[in-house]
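Repro:
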Amino acid sequence: MHKEWLMVMNRRFLKIRYKDCLQWILWISLFQGAISSYLGFNQVNYICDFLLILLLITRLSSEKLHCVKIKRQTEYIPIFYFAIIAIIGWMFNPVPIAMAIWATRNYGRFFLYFIFCAILLDAEDVDKMEDTVVRVFPVHMVLIAFQYIVEGLNQDRLSGIFGNAAGGNGGLMIYLSIMLCVIMARYEYKKLSLLKFILYLLLILVNAALSELKFLFIVAVILLVWYLLMSKRKGQGMIMAMAFIMLFYISVQILYSVFPEYANFLNIDNILDQVSTQEVYASQFDVGRTSVFPKLSPIITSWAGKDALWIGIGLGNADYSSAMSFLNSAFFKAHEYIHYTWLSLGYLFVETGYLGTIAYTSFFVVAEVSAITKYQKKTTYRNLLGTFFPLVCLILLVYNSTLRSNYAYMIFAVLAWNIVGSQSKIIK
């Protein structure tokens, strides 16, 4: 009897440890920028790799592979196809082992984290994760105020919990986008009053204005339109929309006041020009958000032949590492100047071609279609929230390279929430 009790307690302890690893990874992705900037621990992001590897080893050694129910979730199918295309790319374009491992890590860690969240977490865990994201927001805003008033920071160095160094705005973009999704869904299901919604929205948009997150304003408009399409409370939705438009206008004026050079950024003509432009960022050679395919196609063809347009030049053959120079590929050394590494889509197309890009993008498309289907069958809070996140990911794909950064753990965590909620109801 005593031995059986110990075995039960051991299983419970291991289960908690599995979940703790997932929670710790989320916490690190939220605070790694501040830890790096204010504590000097610049390599804190690699702790996530260690935790994920530890989780993978302990999970496989104790539960066996058959417990990973891949076939039950359509969201896993694009991951499988992406892996197959990567392997085919390696067959035709050999990659040094070290660089292949590095590239696999850069993509695989997020898919693995997503699968673990979907398998190991339950509805209560998801609620805790969401509460964590929301409760961190006041801390973030206090740090934003400190950085802006005391440290005198703005633009991409004003990132709150994501630090005060350039580059933190990638994590900030993901976080504020998640917060926008959460407050809209909470308002729809009366988990948030109109007054609190207005306060959250005002702080989010003002933060975006001061941090020069111009693209977040476009994301906010897209999410508002999506909310109005999905909302079942049309009257309340219109009230929220009016408050949204008013706060949006105020925040835009703050953006224009702080950064006069962007006075016409949200002008329709300027937006259309930004969408159609082929030469952006630092020089005329840069790969723009809407020019990935036309600008990179001739470069890929000259590097590895026409067939590489379909399967890429090999996963890892266009990669690099700022910390480990031996992982800098020949392609990167030759074409770093076009800044294809500034976009997740740029990486994808060069290394995996059209097929890999389609497979990777399909992961978010399938997640979106699945979420919409679940919401139509049962209009719950969790299902509504699930329709927002894949849409954000599709936008981030052409925004910058944050889907490859450690901050992406946040977005892959929230993508699993809808799956966990649905599985929990089936179990019950």
